[in-house]
Design goal:
mainly alpha; 2 helices
Length: 75
C-alpha cells in the first residue's frame, strides 16, 4: 500500500521554453529558490534541468508547504 502512495505522491516536472511576452502576472506566488537552470537545446541539458527542478519541488511537496500549488485545478 505504501508503494502506491509514494508513486502517487511523486512530482513530475517538465521544462518548457516560453515567450516571456505571453506571460500573465497573477496574484499567486511561490517562494522557491530554484537553482540557476540553463536549459539548452540538447536532451542531456533538459534532462539535467528537470532533475534539478524535481529535487527542489519534491522537497517542498514533502514538507507540506504551499499545498495549493500541488493540488489539482478546479474549473
Amino acid at each position: 500500500m505504501s508503494s502506491q502512495i509514494s508513486r502517487r505522491s511523486r512530482v513530475k516536472p517538465f521544462v518548457k521554453v516560453i515567450n516571456y511576452s505571453h506571460l500573465l502576472p497573477t496574484r499567486y506566488s511561490l517562494d522557491v529558490d530554484l537553482p540557476n537552470v540553463d536549459v539548452q537545446k540538447d536532451a542531456a541539458g533538459r534532462r539535467k534541468a528537470k532533475g534539478q527542478v524535481k529535487k527542489v519541488f519534491q522537497e517542498r511537496y514533502n514538507s507540506g508547504k504551499n499545498k495549493w500549488f500541488f493540488s489539482k485545478l478546479r474549473f
